[in-house]
Amino acid sequence: MNSYLFFLGQNSLLSQAELTSLIPEAKLTTPHQSIVKLDSPTSLDLPSLGCRLGGTVKIAVLKQTSSAKQLQDDLVKLLLDQQAKNFSLNLLDATNQESYELSNEVKQRLVDNQLRTRFIAPTSTGISPVIITKQKAVELTIDSDFNIYQTTWVHSFKSWINRDRRKPFVTPKSGMLPPKLARIMVNLAVGDKDPGGLTLLDPFCGTGTILMEAALQGIKVIGSDLSADKVAGTKTNLDWLDENQACAPLKPATVFQANATNLKDQLVDQIDLIVTEPTLGPASPSQDKLSDIAHGLQKLYLGALKHWALFLKPQARVVIALPIFHGQDRSYTTADFIDARENLGYNTLRNDLIFTRPGAQIERQIVVLEKQ
Ligand SMILES: C[S@@+](CC[C@H](N)C(=O)[O-])C[C@H]1O[C@@H](n2cnc3c(N)ncnc32)[C@H](O)[C@@H]1O
Questions:
Q1: Are 174 and 84 in a shared domain?
Q2: Which of 226, 280, 355 to mutate to test the pocket of ligand 1 (most atoms within 8 A of CB)?
Q3: What was the pLDDT predicted at 241?
Q4: pTM to 2 decimal places
Q5: Domain that residue 146 falls in
């Protein structure tokens, strides 16, 4: 059995769902709120798996299993073997003080062995990918069974920031998904299939965030939007992605103007997946209008789902981010119509995933559907 620790991003439930979707055979346990231990019968190709994930920031591999008595000796040997100039020890089951004392003792023994070294104090999830990369730090994580894991992969923070902040076409007022959430949604749809053989549609594509995250995985992407400006902007963003971010040329994308409830006739390709964040209604809605807005949106979403059922392949997945509006007295969800309607043509695989930010008035419920 091969064991790994996955250090999750801000929303650990979504990040775990992404892992389960991509590696359904893996056994997951949670030694810490933001860390998942993954046991796999086969060894994982971490660089290629890591690059696909939106919800994981670091991955550590089991190096050896130690014991309370042997731990200090084993850590010293591991760090000496690697001539670690910077190191960090993250004890999942210890207090900060215990961690600090062990790090100090280990450092002293390394110095006694002629290694000029420095330890970096961790937070509860270790040290950041930026520090690991920039300071070439060796990070070791020790769990309650004295398993010692070494961080061997960290996410490419620069390219995530670039895609979040530097794409040429943005529309802050009508809302854009964070790229990491878009990537997680794509992975919830792809599952354990080969992304290179799939075609994905985003019928409310906006600035193209979802299409960009899918295209980077070799998926053929199709986008549409009611607004001609958004169609042009999505094309601009996909061209920018191709020139600035992609390791290999992206597959040619198709983007056109259409109403999401009536686009079938403009499709040439078969659609394997729909991943989308539909319109959330007017920006800054007034409290007394929330109920009507939620009701109106449900009608649009219902019409769209019925229309999509006409051209999706059987077992095709739809991953859709539906708003939950928080009013002063109550909240209005917009996803409940799906399970209330019989004969809609979809099975609900998940509806328990919520994306939220502190103080947010609108949350997103990520619903995963499968065409019957
Ligand atoms: C919340 S935005 C999508 C944002 C996108 N996920 C992004 O990250 O840029 C919703 C989009 O739906 C479009 N829209 C609104 N009503 C539509 C309809 N009936 N059919 C298709 N697109 C529609 C809007 O123009 C807007 O671009």
A1: no
A2: 226
A3: 96
A4: 0.96
A5: 2-155
